[in-house]
UniProtKB/TrEMBL annotation:
This is VWFA domain-containing protein. Gene3D superfamilies: von Willebrand factor, type A domain. PROSITE patterns: VWFA. It holds the Pfam family CLCA. SUPFAM superfamilies: vWA-like. Residues 111-281 form the VWFA domain. GO terms for cellular component: protein-containing complex. It comes from the Eukaryota.
Length: 298
């Protein structure tokens, strides 16, 4: 029998059906179907088996992809060769069992540290203004309640310190935290200094993310290379955002080694590229509270 699927089924020369035609078995109650291919006709409630080489015979001569790609083996034969089933693993059960899974360890809220470049070159191309505007907007509007944020500024070794300690975000403290990000950029560039300050804040913390925003080549030690191993050993992810085209290439390697992200913001950018970077950081936030879920195992 042939039937249509929304588009009329037509027959061409020599009675050959076109691509709109589909085979449909007799759906009367007296039709007995004892075997099937996977997901062929789910509306039939008595289709629950795969063709095999024994009781539910597989047609090795049929011009099907199963025969073409699986050396004419039946569906069940291919399945049973997988390591999940060899050696009589996972034998068939006679009835469904009710199994309850309970999540016993909740993914914690995220501990973020913004590591912000306040070196003198950040005054070029209004970079410090862009840094301030984007960082403040993220704190005020985007980072989720319950997550924690600290802010570190760096320039040279003497110009590196905390602007704000690790603070759990609530609706009442967003504005005051955002306002500590100022526009006073001066001095050299010691990116490793800022990262080490962030590691001090995050010591002993889990689910931690260091977001580094910088524009310049490093000109003071410790360098990114010198602290790369320390970041990886801490278990924290590093996300780097580079302004312009002169930022250290080691920023990308730092992110790569810690399963983080790397972004570049062109000086002609009006904030879109920076917004994308801060939005991506939110991927590390837990999506929702875990629940106990009843799962029926067939």
């Amino acid at each position: 029998d042939r039937t249509t699927l929304n588009i009329p089924c037509k027959y061409g020369h020599y009675g050959k059906p076109d691509a709109n035609c589909r085979f449909q078995p007799d759906l009367e109650d007296n039709q007995e179907v004892e075997s099937s291919i996977l997901n062929y006709l789910p509306l039939r409630n008595n289709i629950s088996l795969f063709c095999d080489n024994d009781e539910h015979h597989h047609n090795i001569a049929a011009p099907t992809k199963q025969n073409a790609f699986c050396n004419r083996q039946s569906t069940w034969s291919v399945i049973m060769q997988h390591q999940d089933f060899t050696g009589n693993r996972n034998p068939q059960i006679e009835k469904a069992e009710q199994v309850q899974f309970q999540i016993v360890k909740q993914v914690s809220d995220v501990n973020f540290v913004l590591v912000l470049d306040y070196s003198g070159s950040m005054n070029d191309e209004q970079r410090i203004q862009k840094l301030q505007a984007t960082s403040q907007s993220w704190i005020r509007n985007d980072v989720g309640d319950g997550n924690s944020v600290a802010i570190v500024r760096f320039s040279n070794k003497d110009g590196t310190y905390q602007l704000a300690p690790l603070t759990k975000i609530t609706s009442s403290n967003r504005e005051s935290l955002a306002n500590v990000i100022d526009l006073k950029a001066t001095g050299g560039t010691c990116i490793g200094c800022g990262i080490r300050e962030a590691l001090k804040i995050l010591q002993g913390k889990i689910n931690c993310v260091i977001l580094v925003l910088t524009d310049g080549e490093e000109n003071e030690s410790p360098t990114i290379q010198e602290v790369n191993g320390e970041v990886k050993a801490s278990g924290c992810r590093a996300v780097s955002v580079a302004f312009g085209d002169k930022a250290s290439q080691d920023l990308e390697l730092l992110a790569l080694n810690t399963d983080g992200y790397t972004f570049y913001a062109n000086d002609n950018d009006v904030g879109i590229e920076l917004d994308d970077a801060f939005t991506a950081v939110l991927d590390y936030e837990p999506e929702q509270d875990p629940l106990s879920i009843n799962i029926k195992v067939l």
